[in-house]
Every structure is written in C-alpha cells, then in structure tokens.
Amino acid sequence: MPSTFLLYGATGYTGSLTARMAVQRGLKPILAGRDPAKVEALADELGLAWRAFPLEDGAALNLALREVPVVLHCAGPYSRTYKPMVDACLRTGTHYLDITGELMEHEALAGRDAEAKAAGVMLLPSVGFDVVPSDCLAAHLKRRLPSATHLTLAFQSFGGASRGTLISTLDAADRPGMVRRAGVLEPVPAAWKTRLIDCGQGPVSCTTLPWGDLATAYRSTGIPNIETYIALPAAQRGAMKSVRYLGWLLGSKPGKAALMRMAQALPAGPSAAERAAGYSLLWGEASGDEGKRAVSRMRTPHSYTLTALASLAVVERVLAGDAPMGYQTPAKAYGPDFVLDIEGVTRTDEPQPLDNIHADASGHTPER
Ligand SMILES: NC(=O)c1ccc[n+]([C@@H]2O[C@H](COP(=O)([O-])OP(=O)(O)OC[C@H]3O[C@@H](n4cnc5c(N)ncnc54)[C@H](OP(=O)(O)O)[C@@H]3O)[C@@H](O)[C@H]2O)c1
Asked: Which residue of 162, 169, 274, 282 sits with most ligand 1 atoms within 8 Å of its CB, as the best mutation to test the pocket?
C-alpha cells in the first residue's frame, strides 16, 4: 500500500496530532500549510517532506496535489478554506478528505457530485469525530429499522475542545439553527429544542445544534426527518439561545473580530492527559410512523483522538484503492460498521421489541 498523502493544515492542533499519529502508523504524509517556518519545524521533527503555500496559490496547490493520490485537509474554518482545495482536487484528479463539521459545506459538496465523478475523485468531508461515529450510528439504526421516517442523534463529550473548533463555531455563530424535515433543511431558532436524553450515563439536557449529520445522515440513510442534539450545561445553552437576539452583532465584522481576538488568547486545545482521560458518548434513535423505534449508543475515545484515528483510517482505505467516486459520506463509502474498526469505539443496541424486528427484517409490517 502506498503511504504518502498530503496533510494540509498540518501545524494546527488537530493537523499536528494527526501527523504524529500518521507516523506511528507507518504513513508518510507530506506536511503542508501556509506558514513555511511552522511547517518546516514540524516536518523536521517528524522526518517528513513538507510544502508551504497559501490556498490562494492555485499553481502551488496543483503541484502539491499532483504528487499524491489523496489530501487530508485539516485547515479550518472550512467556510473559508474548503473551496480552493476542492477545486484543485477536481482539477488534478486527487481524492479529497477533510474534518469539517460544517453543514453548509456538505450541502455545497453534495452539489458537486457529478463533477467529482467526471474527474474520477471521491469527495468525502467530515472524516473526524463529526461525523464518522454519528454517521455510522445513523446507518446502523437504519439497518435496524429500515422503515424509519425519523432520526434523532445526540452526543455528549468529555475533555474539551480546540481553539480552532471554537473559532469555527464562532465563525458560524450568526447562522440559524437547522433541522431536516420531509427531506428539506429547515431553519429553526438557535437552541430551538431542549430535551432529556440518556447518551449512556443517565439523562442529561440536550439542545438542538445543526451538526453536519443533517446533511450526511440524510444521504447515508434517506431518513427524511432528522434532528441533532448536543449535551450542554445550562450556561452554554443560555449562550446559544442568546444568538437568537444577538445574531446581528455576532455576524457583524466588528462583533466577529472581537470574538476571534478573544478566542486567539485560548490554549490550542486539550492536553495529552486531557485527551487520554476524555471520551464521547453518542445516542441515536430511529422511529417510524407505526410507533416502532430502535435506539443504539456508542462510546468513542476523546473527540480529537477519534478525529485523528478516523481520518487516518479513511486515508488508509483510500491509499489501498478503496475510494468510491463522487460525493460520499463515511457510512456510504465504508459501511455502518466502519467506525468499529477504530480502536476504543464500542456500540450497544437497546433491545428491540419482537414485532419491530419481524416488521423490519423484510421491510414490511406483517399481516395479522
Ligand atoms: N469534525 C470534527 O470532529 C473536527 C475535529 C477537529 C477539528 N475540526 C475542525 O478542523 C479545523 C482545524 O481545527 P484545529 O483544532 O486544528 O484548529 P487550529 O489549531 O486553529 O488550526 C487551524 C489550522 O488551519 C490553518 N488555517 C486556517 N485558516 C487558513 C487559511 N485561510 N489558509 C490556510 N490555512 C489556514 C492554520 O494555519 P496557521 O497556523 O498558519 O494559522 C492551522 O494550521 C477547524 O475548523 C475545526 O472545527 C473538526
């Protein structure tokens, strides 16, 4: 199996974690980013080749992508970084992977499916924590309840977030909430609904948040009604709700600049000890019009450890030649059980009532 791929954004918190784990797995990424001094220092430390160029330099992008079969794009916020990389991948016939959790980027990439197929490349965004486990969970629930018409997903994370994730969250803070209804994305107020969900350690308050899964779970399962939730303490729920009234301020240039300055002062991300102690819990429920329901849960390592492990597992599949063309989701490309190959990931199913199982193994409700 070839071992070389391009890792752009390699000097960020998640990019450098991924670069280090890649080396441990025997992979040889070419490290890349826009700051030559930072990229060279990391490449020298890890004994890897490196390239430095801004995303605006189309000629340099072409050159770097022509050297490799696949790029893992770790530079975000993706609202600002995905397009030049995707354009260059389509120009050069290079498979595209990223770790975005941004919903609207998925919608944009899904719209480029035909272009990707014509170019012979796979476009597979969100090969990190958001959305590999939740997408596989969604596809697993669809497998358990093929007649499902509604899907609800929730997660609860322990162990902190990176500055880059916070910056990406703030970058999108002025956008409304979102759900999928009858197959269509529908704007809803920020932190629209709160409900108690047991992600695995007892019921906790979870609030709607527009994850990438509103795009991916729909395409992986075809289930037309989807809501996504996050477990949050009351103070953070309140902050999310305030976006309903302060969205105009957060969306203004001075408002965004002030938030970004505050975020830049934060640490880069959780320490190695915090990552080792942290973990995430996921819960998913598929339900149908006839009152049937299936519930499954998942536990994963810390979300950033999981992001590095999952993205490298996908890179390895692509390097081994397993890259279905066009826009993909993790579960469509590699199946609902792909996530179970990642060390530290477990999945449990709540038992289904017998008539559920009979009804759905065939896809039809049995006659009585
Ligand atoms: N889906 C998931 O589960 C998941 C998990 C982890 C991270 N993420 C996302 O991944 C992204 C990176 O996260 P992080 O924690 O690594 O953040 P980070 O530590 O802030 O790193 C960001 C990286 O992106 C680069 N970058 C930013 N804007 C750029 C631009 N316009 N052109 C070129 N490079 C640019 C930065 O380069 P400089 O150093 O030169 O500024 C840096 O290398 C974020 O969007 C985050 O939300 C998602």
From this structure: 162
